[in-house]
Amino acid sequence: MKKIFILTAMLITVFTASITAQTVTPPKQSGPEIKLIETSYDFGSINEGTLATHEFIFSNTGDSDLILQLKLYLL
């Protein structure tokens, strides 16, 4: 009985070690990465003709320059 217990413990140890050894952490991607404090904002009800503005705060947490392009579509 003692031999079966020791053999089972050894098999569990080897199995656990093989699973742990196969776990791979993917490499961090390089390049720009934008981090936003908030991703949306509710303006609520706005009367027609009223100018509504809001600042979105962001930072570049990547390892290269972040280039922003603004495209305006007029209706």
Structure write-up:
- A two-stranded antiparallel sheet has the order 1-2.
- The chain has one helix at 2-22; strands at 34-36, 58-60.
- 28% of the residues lie in helices and 8% in strands.
- The chain has 75 residues and is of the alpha+beta class.
- The mean pLDDT is 80.
| Total beta-strand segments | 2
Strand content: 5-15%
Helix content percent band? 25-40%
- Provide the gyration radius in Å: 28 Å
Q: What structural category characterises the helix and strand content? A: alpha+beta
Instruction: List unreliable stretches of 5+ residues.
Output: none
- Alpha-carbon distance between the two ends: 82 Å
Q: Name the helix and strand elements from N-terminus to C-terminus, one letter apiece.
A: HEE
- Treating each run of at least 4 consecutive H or I residues as one helix, how many helices? 1
User: Which oligomeric form is depicted?
Assistant: single chain
Question: What would you call the shape?
Answer: elongated
Largest sheet composition: 2 strands, antiparallel
Strand order of the main beta sheet, please?
1-2
Mean pLDDT: 80
Which helices and strands occur, and which strands form pairs?
Elements: H1 2-22, E1 34-36, E2 58-60
Antiparallel strand pairs: 1-2
Summary keywords:
75 residues, alpha+beta, two-stranded antiparallel ribbon, 1 helix
Give a short synopsis of this structure.
With 75 residues, this protein is an alpha+beta fold. The protein has one helix at 2-22, and strands spanning 34-36, 58-60.
